Every structure is written in structure tokens, then in C-alpha cells.
Amino acid sequence: MNARQVGVDLGGTTFTVALVDREGRIDFKSEHDTLAHEGSEAVMGRIAAAIRELLEQAGVKPSELTGIGLGMPGLHDRERGVCIYASNLQWRDVPVRDRFQQWFDVPVVIENDVRCAALGERHFGAGRGVDDMVLVTLGTGVGGAVIMGGKLQRGDGFAGEVGHQTIDPDGMLCSCGNRGCLESYAGAIGIVRRARAAYARRPSDRLREVAGKDLAHLTPKHLSEAAVAGDETARWILSETGRYLGIGLANVVSLLHPKRIVVGGGVARAGDLILSALREEISRRVPYGMDTTEVVLAELGPAAGVIGASTLVWSAVA
Amino acid sequence: MNARQVGVDLGGTTFTVALVDREGRIDFKSEHDTLAHEGSEAVMGRIAAAIRELLEQAGVKPSELTGIGLGMPGLHDRERGVCIYASNLQWRDVPVRDRFQQWFDVPVVIENDVRCAALGERHFGAGRGVDDMVLVTLGTGVGGAVIMGGKLQRGDGFAGEVGHQTIDPDGMLCSCGNRGCLESYAGAIGIVRRARAAYARRPSDRLREVAGKDLAHLTPKHLSEAAVAGDETARWILSETGRYLGIGLANVVSLLHPKRIVVGGGVARAGDLILSALREEISRRVPYGMDTTEVVLAELGPAAGVIGASTLVWSAVA
């Protein structure tokens, strides 16, 4: 079966468009600069041009297209297909669906990008066959999406903010204004902050080799590399990250008892350096936790976004 | 329309049977001792006898009955109608549905008791018309049930354990083995423990008047009474209870963003003595929290259990 759905993954810096088939296979894909400062009309126009180019490359006529699924950050009115607010795009009340429907005359569905990634993993990745699944994405922030009873759950709009759970009532101040959010410990910024504090007390040549002398550009990836090379402090910081995540995900298990928790995002590439401690912490906090809820790595990588967005066109889960 | 569904609310000490109509009105109701020590067959036999008596009183023939909904504590296999485990009844693998179907020849559905209360509130109480709702029950423990997308969510069985969220990673040891569970602060035992500690430092004649001289039988109800009578320490303890609950419920809002949180159970009778601080804490921790999620008191009282159980027979929410 030929790919007939377009998935779009729109981020603050770049966007990706892809032609995806019903088995989640990407036929054609291209990546472009978002240039958000040019405004929503210009960005949408550029996305439309990229889609047309894609169809041409693939030899798919616009009339053969079954629909366009569009994932982007922020809060959306799904019924009206309007992006209510997306801070890193500076969009407010942008009628995304109407615009693309005018241009392509096919069904257009918009959804939050993390939820799109969850749909991608649910259909074709680490969440296959599971009706109760929570996705956690580890990147600059800690994002999340909840699928329960075989349906994406949005609640009143913001459901899935795994990273803004309080894990320490009087803890670190978070960018959201709360204290002690999981994200302020286990997001990339939190990880780097904890690492800097630890290395200030105990400098490491191994880390300097991968991250540079003054650690000015230190990232979680450097810590993974140093940890693999045997650096004890890096191992400790990543395992502490797992423990913090385990506290938050133990709460997810208590509240939702999902069959599977899928951990994605760039920072998750650290794998067991984070996941071992994470699983242990869930076991410590929920007696039945790790016997019943699996914690696994995401499978689709950065493509989860476009693949998931393409499923918006036909999926019952969305 | 006449009441044609039987609801049963089976607890460790007493059970209630009621004939309930499709508008949630109780036509006939009776309460009995559970006598759990006599074993599951004896208890089920006593429930069946109570149901027969009820039908007779109401002039309803067994053949006119549309079904029996049975709420009880513990974990159940809903598909097979088996109570897998209920600690305060000492039941293990009890084939509840088969037994009652043999006796009454009508559909029999079993469900966890807190979830039944949630169904009751959802259909006929404080959750009317709301598809995304979380019930929290404040009693000896802190229980919960989750309705999302218009469906009761069970996850892999234990979904809804609001009280076993960690709100302080290194906090009080909880009966479940975890540290810092919400329940160990905001359950009746936790409330009384905090109150004893506070009054040890600052004795109160007002409290002694309602709770006795040595506070040996102190309950949250005594604290409410003393608070209403102007006792500052009691007010503080209850408001602290609200703050603890607010931390846990802020997490619920972050994760599920329900339209409504319904607070029930005996301790909730303290009303705004707890709820004011609770709402304030949610506002502090979730920027959009109290603008979008309502926190309201349950409306059905202890009858929520039998009423909700009766809806198991016909409800699409269950």
C-alpha cells in the first residue's frame, strides 16, 4: 500500500514533513528551517510548499492524499483545528486546519507534538498493542502523553505534563513557577546543573576530554559518554536522574497503572545508565510496580513525531 | 420508572444493599453486619438473603430485576467476576459473579468500591456531565478513582491510588512500604499523628472538650469541631492537610488535567477547613490549575457506593 498520509512535525527551529503509509513506514521525508520569526502565515506557507514538493517527489497527486496530520508544541483546540498558543513559535489563535484545508482540500488534524510521538510509538513502536501507555520524553524539558483505555487523553487540554509533577514540595524553583517539579531535576538543564555542582567538588579529566575544559557547553550526552568511559561521577549523576524520574513515574503508576511506560527523547539515549535506577525506584515505591508496568525505551527516535502525526488522519486512538 | 437494579456496597464491617432506579434514587435499602470472619460463602449468602428480603419489601419479583452491581474493596478480575484479593475481607479468588448469577439469574458486575463511589458521583452527584473526573476519598486512607474520556480507567488493575503518590521522597514511612505517600500525611491516621504532635507542644482546652482529656480517641472529626469552635491549632492541622492534598492533587492536574476533582469520604466533611488550602496549593503549583479544574465536595455521601454499584448494570462509563 502506498503512503497516502502526510505527517508534519513542527518545532521551534526545524520542521519535518513526511509521507507515511498505514504501517508507519516513511516513504519520503524532508526537513526545513522553521524561521518562526517570519510569522505563522510564512511558516505555514513554507510547510505547504514542502508538502507539495514531497508529493511531487513521491508521484502522489494531491487528490490521492487522504489527509494531513500536524504535530506542534503548545495548546490546541482540536475541534476547530486552531493553535491556541505555542510559546516557542510565538503563535496565538492560528487557524492551522482551515489554512491547510484551503490549500489541499483534505482532512487536517492538529495535535500536540509529544502526543503525536506517543501515537507513533503506540501504533508502530514501543507501545504496540498496549491500550494503557504513558510516554515520557527526556529532553530540555520532561514531557509526556497519556493513552488510557486505547484513547489519547487530553483532559481539559494539558493532560500529560509528567515533568511538572512536584517531586519535592520545597525543592528547586521551576520555570513554570512551581517548586520541585520533576523537570527541574531530570530535564537537561537540571541534569547539567547537578553535574556542574558535582564536578566542581570533584573535577574529572575524562569529562573534560568529551565536554571541554570549562564545561561551558556540557550536555547530558557528554555525561553519557563519560559514564561509558568509566567516569564514576557521570554514572552517579545519570543514575540520580533515574531516581528522580522513578519518583515521578512511581506516581504515574499509582495513579494510572499503565501497562507500559515508554521513555523517549534525546536524553533517553543514556539507556540503562538512567533506566536501571529508574526501575529500581519504582519498585521501591510501588509494591506491584515493576511486576506489572514495563518501562521500555522508545523505538522510533525523532521520527516518532511525523509518524504519529500521520496517524491522526485515520487512528481511533487519537 | 421503578427501581430494578440492586447495588451492593460490601465493606469489612458492614454491607449495604439497595434497590436503585436509573435516576440514582434509592427505593429500598438495608444495612447489615459483614461478619467477615465467617468466610466468603457465608458473607455472600447473607448478602443474597438481604437482596431477597429487599425485593420482597419492594414487591419486585426476582425475574423483574435487571442486574446486580457489587462494589467491594480490593482487586478484581472484572471479566471473570472474581475477587482476586480483598485484604479487609480476607478474600482470595472468590467467584463472586458466578455465585450471584446462580442465585438470581441476572447479570452481575463487580467493581472496586472507590470506583463505584466515583460512578455514583459521576452519574448523579458532583461529577454530573463531566467526562474527565477524579474522585478522592478522605478516610482512614486516601483513595481514588479516575474517569477519563467518559470511561472508568483501571489501567492494569490498580489505577486510582491517589493516596500512594509520593509527596515527599524521604518522608514518613507508609503502610505500603513507600516513604512519603500522600496518605501518610492526609489519611485519618496521619492527620491524628500530626495533631497529637502539635497539641503536645500546645495543649488546648477546646479540643479536650470534644475529644477527651488524653486525646486517646482523637479523630479528624474532633479537629473539625474544635476548629469550628475557634481552636487555632485544629484549624492549622486541617489546613495543613489541605496543603498536603493540594500537592498530590496538583500532580493529578498536571498528569490528567481533569475538569473536576470530587473530594469525598468522612474527613471531607471538614469542607473549606481543608479545601481552601487545598485549592490554594493547586494554584501555587499549576499555573492554569484552579482556572480550569474545579475542586468540589462529593454530593452523595456514604450512599455513593450502592448508587454507583447499581450503575454497573447499565452504565457505559463503567
Topology overview:
2 copies of one chain form a homodimer.
Chain A: E1 5-10, E2 14-20, E3 26-33, H1 40-58, E4 67-72, E5 75-77, E6 82-86, E7 91-94, H2 96-104, E8 108-112, H3 113-124, E9 133-138, E10 142-148, E11 151-153, H4 182-186, H5 188-201, H6 205-211, H7 220-228, H8 232-256, E12 260-264, H9 272-285, H10 289-292, E13 294-297, H11 304-311
Parallel strand pairs in A: 1-4, 4-8, 9-12, 12-13
Antiparallel strand pairs in A: 1-2, 2-3, 5-6, 6-7, 9-10, 10-11
Helix pairs in contact in A: 3-11, 5-8, 6-7, 7-8, 8-9
Commentary on this structure:
2 copies of one chain form a homodimer. The model of chain A has no long low-confidence stretch (mean pLDDT 95). Chain A folds into 2 domains: 5-120 and 305-311, Nucleotidyltransferase, domain 5, CATH 3.30.420.40; 129-298, 2-Layer Sandwich (Nucleotidyltransferase, domain 5), CATH 3.30.420. Chain A is globular. The first copy, chain A, has 318 residues and is α/β, with parallel strands linked by helices. In chain A, helix 3 packs across helix 11, helix 5 (188-201) packs antiparallel against helix 8 and helix 8 (232-256) packs across helix 9 (272-285). In chain A, the strands form 3 sheets. In chain A, strands 3-2-1-4-8 form a 5-stranded mixed beta sheet. Chain A has helices at residues 40-58, 96-104, 113-124, 182-186, 188-201, 205-211, 220-228, 232-256, 272-285, 289-292, 304-311, and strands at 5-10, 14-20, 26-33, 67-72, 75-77, 82-86, 91-94, 108-112, 133-138, 142-148, 151-153, 260-264, 294-297. The A-B interface holds A 132, 144, 146, 148-149, 151, 153-162, 164-169, 176-179, 247, 250-252, 254-259, 284-288, 292-293 and B 132, 144, 146, 148-149, 151, 153-162, 164-169, 176-179, 247, 250-252, 254-259, 284-288, 292-293.
